[in-house]
């Protein structure tokens, strides 16, 4: 498998034990049972699966480990889990039930040393830093936390470089402005972050068709993450991979 091959990653946004999808982080609608949805993606040729417990940080509780365990049992592809991870013990618990990577957002902002500690203990390849970015003025993006509810007051580009230095193995970069709109990813944001880093960037927020995914991978993203277009059957992963290959983008078989 070529390490430079681009990855396709469906995302399960989980709220109260159900997969949901919204627009700009609100107006959530039900998209199914996480275990069933995960099985479908595993069989459809997804390269990884991202599981985000989207209300854990806001509700100040831990990730729903029992649901993660059930999902992990049914997967043969890497599973990345985020939401409500605050300390080393939380990461331990998730890795113990079968997840491969953890995605940390709010806790990394509150305690950046957690990144260093986690990378040292578990290896950088396990540590993904989720960055929810919102444009606050012309081409100025700030990091938001607590499910997009609070402006952390940090510049996205500076924070991305810092988390790389601290040992993060990957960044999951979500454009809040584009999330759920199906109007295409934020090319400028993703390209600038990707160019400034040596670690992989997963682009998230805005996928509406196969061309959007092609464009963001060509713009420098190492992986494209999407939710609603996959959940509601608008795009099938095998057809997407075929389309990308036909357009000169190497994808994992």
From TrEMBL:
Q: What is its EC number?
A: 4.3.2.10
Main localization category: cytoplasm
Cite the GO molecular-function annotations of the record: imidazoleglycerol-phosphate synthase activity; lyase activity
Q: Where in the cell is it found?
A: Cytoplasm
Keywords from the named record: Amino-acid biosynthesis, Cytoplasm, Histidine biosynthesis, Lyase
Q: Name one Pfam family in it.
A: His_biosynth
Cellular component annotations (GO), alphabetically ordered: cytoplasm
The highest taxon in the source lineage is Bacteria
Catalytic residues in the record: 13, 132
Q: Which reaction does it catalyse?
A: 5-[(5-phospho-1-deoxy-D-ribulos-1-ylimino)methylamino]-1-(5-phospho-beta-D-ribosyl)imidazole-4-carboxamide + L-glutamine = D-erythro-1-(imidazol-4-yl)glycerol 3-phosphate + 5-amino-1-(5-phospho-beta-D-ribosyl)imidazole-4-carboxamide + L-glutamate + H(+)
Keyword Lyase attached? yes
| Gene Ontology biological process terms, A to Z | L-histidine biosynthetic process
Identify the pathway.
Answer: Amino-acid biosynthesis; L-histidine biosynthesis; L-histidine from 5-phospho-alpha-D-ribose 1-diphosphate: step 5/9
Job of this protein: IGPS catalyzes the conversion of PRFAR and glutamine to IGP, AICAR and glutamate. The HisF subunit catalyzes the cyclization activity that produces IGP and AICAR from PRFAR using the ammonia provided by the HisH subunit.
Classification via NCBIfam families: hisF (TIGR00735)
Q: Which family does it belong to?
A: Belongs to the HisA/HisF family.
> What PANTHER family does its record include?
IMIDAZOLE GLYCEROL PHOSPHATE SYNTHASE HISHF, IMIDAZOLE GLYCEROL PHOSPHATE SYNTHASE SUBUNIT HISF/H IGP SYNTHASE SUBUNIT HISF/H
Subunit-structure text: Heterodimer of HisH and HisF.
Full protein name: Imidazole glycerol phosphate synthase subunit HisF
From which organism does this entry originate? Campylobacter sputorum subsp. sputorum
Identify the gene encoding this protein: hisF
């Amino acid at each position: 498998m070529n390490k430079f091959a681009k990855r396709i990653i469906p995302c399960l946004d989980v709220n109260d034990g159900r997969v949901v999808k919204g627009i700009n982080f609100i107006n959530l609608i039900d998209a199914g049972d996480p275990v069933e949805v995960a099985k479908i993606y595993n069989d459809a040729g997804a390269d990884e699966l991202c599981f985000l417990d989207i209300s854990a940080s806001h509700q100040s509780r831990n990730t729903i480990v029992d649901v993660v365990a059930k999902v992990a049992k049914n997967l043969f592809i890497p599973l990345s889990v985020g939401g409500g991870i605050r300390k080393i013990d939380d990461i331990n618990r998730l890795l113990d039930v079968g997840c491969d990577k953890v995605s940390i957002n709010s806790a990394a902002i509150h305690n950046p040393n957690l990144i260093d500690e986690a990378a040292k203990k578990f290896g950088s390849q396990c540590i993904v830093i989720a960055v929810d970015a919102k444009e606050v003025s012309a081409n100025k993006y700030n990091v938001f936390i607590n499910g997009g509810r609070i402006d952390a007051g940090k510049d996205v580009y500076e924070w991305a470089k810092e988390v790389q230095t601290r040992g993060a193995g990957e960044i999951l970069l979500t454009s809040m402005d584009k999330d759920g709109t199906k109007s295409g990813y934020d090319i400028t944001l993703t390209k600038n972050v990707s160019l400034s880093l040596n670690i992989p960037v997963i682009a998230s927020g805005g996928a509406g068709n196969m061309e959007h995914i092609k464009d963001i991978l060509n713009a420098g993203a190492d992986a494209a993450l999407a939710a609603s277009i996959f959940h509601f059957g608008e795009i099938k992963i095998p057809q997407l991979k075929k389309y990308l290959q036909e357009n000169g983008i190497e994808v994992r078989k």
